[in-house]
Each structure stands twice: as structure tokens, then as C-alpha cells.
């Protein structure tokens, strides 16, 4: 049996990843605030945990609950996909509320760090295949005014993946870890970026033109690429990997 812990499965890329990972010998632990009933109707091998990743002090208990239902002695592989994310507040930092700032960093950076730390603790003695995929973003490198928190969190996640990658190199039974930049995908997160008030977030235009010029990929295609990556033999452990198909950009020129 292979076990998958996936965050952010109520819509977008996370929903597609969960959908495509459904298989008789796979068990999925899906995490988001809203339960995805469509996924639950499709498979009996899903444990759905309606959980707000802002509750960072409850993450250890959440992982404890998950690992209590994993039969480690018969597990062929255990995988964590940190996919959940939020873009808000899209605003110049001096106009953001302290609570909004805290939430962004908690969901985008602290929660995946805590989930990864707990995942490694729970799996460190197991001989099964163990991998963490952190879904990051090219926003870690490409900076726009109004997106400082999202970019800082993703850059932090990339550095975290790289450092933990180094740590795991000396582990007896290492956990593989990577950060993936998935590209530009037609999801709610993109819609939120392009529909911001342009007076507050002038770069909304950039997101508008990306949509208009057909440069967005589908969540299904992106999920397929991420899953291919997850099972790759030469998993690029400790790396930040950009999987966007840049030929899409060339086609537009
Ligand atoms: N779309 C893009 O163009 C793009 C580009 C680069 C990187 N990415 C990355 O790809 C990943 C998926 O993004 P997406 O575009 O699919 O976004 P999305 O459609 O907005 O979905 C975000 C998911 O995260 C969950 N989530 C948000 N806040 C949460 C919280 N407090 N607790 C638990 N779950 C929470 C949401 O579920 P609930 O609301 O039900 O909690 C939802 O399932 C993210 O890491 C994003 O940064 C996306």
C-alpha cells in the first residue's frame, strides 16, 4: 500500500492530484478546510480531514492521527504533498493587517514546515519510499509589488527544502524532499490575483494578460506532471525544480 498526505484538495491542483492518485493500492489523506465531497464520492480509500492549516499548534496532533492509521510495516511508500496555499493579502505591506500577514505565513510556510518535520519524525526508521513535495512558485524569484508575503513564503519554502535535503543526505533512511514551481495554472488562486483592485495591486494586469494570452495550464495537466515527478527514479532530492512548459511562452511570441 502507498499512502499520500495531500494538503489543499478542495479545489485546483490539489483536487486534481488527489483524483489522479486514486488507485486500489493507494490510500489518500486529504486536508483542506472544506471537505471535497466530489473526491469522497469517487473513492472509499480517502480519509478526509477538514482542517484549517492556520491552527499550527494542532498540526502535530493531526499528523499523529494520520500516522495512527498507517500500517508502516506494510507500507511500500509514504508521501507528503504540501500544496495548500493562499495569496491574500495582495497588498503593499504597510496596508496589510497583522492578522492577515500572520495567516499568509502560517499557511504558506509554517504549516508545510511543521508537516514536513512531523512527517520525517514519523517515517525516519522506515525502509519504505518516503518523499516530500513542496509546491512552491516562481514567485519565489519573480517579485511583484503587493505579493511580498506570498513570494517570501515560497522563497522560504525553497530554502527549507534545500536545507532539509542536505540534512537527509546523512540520514540512515533518508526522506526525499523537493520544491516544485508548477507554472501558471487556471485556478482560483490565479483568478484572485487578476481580479484584485488595480489601484491596490497594479500587477493584476500581468495576471490578466497571462490568462488572455492562453498561457495558463490546466490543473489536470499540472497534477499529471507533479505525480510523474513524485515517482521519478532520479527524484531531484534537495532541489528546486521548475516544471513549467516554457514553450507556451514561445508560442505566444
Ligand atoms: N495557480 C497558479 O498559477 C500557481 C502558480 C504557482 C504556484 N502555485 C501553487 O500551487 C499550489 C496550489 O494552488 P492552486 O492554484 O490550486 O490554489 P487554489 O485553487 O486556490 O487552492 C488552494 C487550496 O489550498 C487550500 N487552503 C487554503 N488555505 C487553507 C487553510 N487555511 N487550511 C487548509 N487548506 C487551505 C484550499 O482549501 P480550503 O479553502 O477548502 O481550505 C484549496 O484546496 C499552491 O501551493 C500555489 O502556491 C499555483
UniProtKB/TrEMBL annotation:
- Give Gene Ontology CC terms: cytoplasm
Q: Which organism's genome codes for this protein?
A: Paenibacillus curdlanolyticus YK9
Any one GO molecular-function label of the UniProt entry: sepiapterin reductase (NADP+) activity
Q: What is this protein called?
A: Short-chain dehydrogenase/reductase SDR
Entry's localization field: Cytoplasm
Q: Per its UniProt record, what PANTHER family does this chain match? A: SEPIAPTERIN REDUCTASE (PTHR44085)
Q: Which family does it belong to?
A: Belongs to the short-chain dehydrogenases/reductases (SDR) family.
Protein's UniProt keywords contain Oxidoreductase: yes
Q: What is its main location?
A: cytoplasm
- Provide one Gene Ontology biological process annotation: tetrahydrobiopterin biosynthetic process
Q: Does the keyword Oxidoreductase apply?
A: yes
Amino acid at each position: 500500500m502507498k499512502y499520500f498526505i495531500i494538503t489543499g484538495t478542495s479545489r485546483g491542483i490539489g483536487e486534481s492530484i488527489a483524483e489522479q492518485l486514486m488507485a486500489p493500492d493507494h490510500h489518500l489523506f486529504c486536508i483542506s478546510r472544506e471537505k471535497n465531497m466530489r473526491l469522497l464520492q469517487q473513492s472509499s480509500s480517502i480519509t478526509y480531514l477538514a482542517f484549517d492549516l492556520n491552527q499550527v499548534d494542532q498540526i502535530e496532533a493531526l499528523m499523529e492521527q494520520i500516522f495512527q492509521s498507517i500500517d508502516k510495516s506494510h507500507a511500500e511508500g509514504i508521501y507528503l504533498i504540501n500544496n495548500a496555499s493562499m495569496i491574500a493579502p495582495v497588498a503593499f505591506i504597510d496596508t496589510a493587517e497583522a492578522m492577515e500577514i500572520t495567516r499568509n505565513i502560517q499557511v504558506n510556510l509554517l504549516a508545510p514546515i511543521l508537516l514536513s518535520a512531523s512527517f520525517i519524525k514519523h517515517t525516519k526508521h522506515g525502509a519504505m519510499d518516503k518523499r516530500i513535495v513542496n509546491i512552491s512558485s516562481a514567485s519565489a524569484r519573480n517579485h511583484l509589488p503587493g505579493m511580498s508575503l506570498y513570494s517570501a513564503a515560497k522563497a522560504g519554502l525553497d530554502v527549507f527544502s534545500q536545507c532539509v535535503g542536505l540534512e537527509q543526505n546523512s540520514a540512515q533512511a533518508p526522506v526525499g524532499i523537493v520544491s516544485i514551481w508548477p507554472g501558471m495554472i487556471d485556478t482560483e488562486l490565479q483568478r484572485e490575483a487578476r481580479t484584485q483592485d488595480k489601484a491596490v495591486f497594479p500587477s493584476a494586469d500581468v495576471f490578466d494578460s497571462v490568462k488572455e494570452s492562453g498561457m495558463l495550464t490546466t490543473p489536470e495537466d499540472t497534477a499529471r506532471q507533479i505525480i510523474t515527478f513524485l515517482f521519478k527514479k532520479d527524484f531531484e532530492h534537495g532541489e528546486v525544480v521548475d516544471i513549467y512548459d516554457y514553450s507556451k511562452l514561445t508560442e505566444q511570441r
